[in-house]
Automatic annotation (TrEMBL):
InterPro entries in the cross-refs: Chromosome_partition/occlusion, HTH_ParB/Spo0J, ParB/RepB/Spo0J, ParB/Sulfiredoxin_sf, ParB_dimer_C, ParB_N
Pfam families: HTH_ParB (PF17762), ParB_C (PF23552), ParB_N (PF02195)
Record family assignment: Belongs to the ParB family.
NCBIfam families in UniProt: parB_part
Coiled-coil region(s): none
Keywords, comma-separated and alphabetical: Chromosome partition, DNA-binding
Protein name per the record: ParB/RepB/Spo0J family partition protein
Domain ParB-like N-terminal: 43-133
Lineage: Bacteria, Pseudomonadati, Bacteroidota, Cytophagia, Cytophagales
Length: 305
């Protein structure tokens, strides 16, 4: 007796962007979703016919980096084609490759090689997010926001998201936790004032005011991740007034002023001078010397001998 059961469709989970581009997702036909069709060959498309991707997860493109890519394109051409979807005759929309698209315009190109796909809005969003996560130099906060959008706007579960981006559930969760931090700390993470390691340590403190205090101290004293972890551990173990008080450190403007004074002292004594303050007009100045002669030189400057 012949087996009339349909051959099960191969799952696209765990195969990243390639799966999204080559396989149509298992969606209810009543939703009217258009499956992603595989592409045959590369098309040369006029840049003027291409619209930017409205689902682009990146909000900032470094101008200097774009200029460098533009100069490279002038010499080498486009090595990796962009990916677009066709809207109407002579009208396309970017799926991935906006940096190459923008740099090609800067380089004065009129056309660009492109793969043409058929995709609905949700597939556009998912492909754009995953392509950026996999290929672009996103910071940790941008990755976290991309993960959150995949969960909420593409209706993925964390396990499915992990398969899509090639990360385990713990890693995905670590990124998502960053979005629970106060806006000031998220901004510092976005601007590379602190690293993801710093942020992951700070988030283990429940009190927002204490989180902000640790964040300010981390920047002011340029604390390592290990030192921040130790500070968080001390606070969570039962902080005394000194630990909490010490985290109320100077703001960036005062830090700049202290830095300028330190530079002037170093110039005056001809050696590296360390100037530390607790933010309450108390602190210490350290003037290192390398020999007896060097010490005498410093003492003469101080008019002690």
């Amino acid at each position: 007796m012949a087996n009339n059961k349909p051959t099960p469709k191969k799952s696209v989970l765990g195969r990243g962007l390639g799966a999204l581009l080559e396989d149509s997702p298992q969606k209810n036909k009543s939703q009217g979703l258009v499956p992603v069709q595989p592409v045959v060959g590369i098309n040369e498309i006029a840049l003027s016919e291409i619209q930017v991707n409205p689902f682009q997860p990146r909000t900032h493109f470094d101008k200097e980096s774009l200029q460098e890519l533009s100069e490279s394109i002038k010499v080498q051409g486009i090595i990796q084609p962009i990916t677009v979807r066709k809207l109407t005759e002579g009208e396309y929309q970017l799926i991935s490759g906006e940096r190459r698209f923008q740099a090609s315009k800067m380089a004065g190109l009129e056309t660009i090689p492109a793969y043409v796909r058929t995709a609905n809005d949700q597939q556009m969003l998912e492909m754009a997010l995953i392509e950026n996560i996999q290929r672009e130099n996103l910071n940790s906060l941008e990755i976290a926001h991309s993960y959150q959008r995949l969960l909420t706007e593409c209706n993925l579960k964390q396990e499915q998201l992990g398969d899509r981006v090639g990360k385990n559930r713990t890693t995905v969760n670590n990124y998502l936790r960053l979005l629970k931090l106060p806006p000031d700390i998220q901004a510092g993470l976005r601007d590379n004032l602190i690293s993801m390691g710093h942020a992951r340590a700070i988030i283990n403190v429940e009190d927002v005011d204490k989180q902000l205090a640790i964040y300010k101290r981390t920047i002011a004293e340029e604390l390592s991740v290990r030192k921040v972890e130790a500070l968080v551990k001390a606070i969570n173990s039962g902080p005394d007034e000194k630990i909490i008080e010490k985290t109320q450190i100077m703001d960036p403007v005062k830090k700049y002023e202290i830095g300028k004074i330190q530079q002037r002292l170093a110039s005056h004594f001809g050696t590296k001078v360390q100037l530390k303050t607790d933010g309450k007009n108390k602190g210490e100045i350290k003037i290192p010397f390398g020999s007896a002669e060097d010490l005498n030189r410093i003492l003469e400057i101080l008019d002690i001998i």
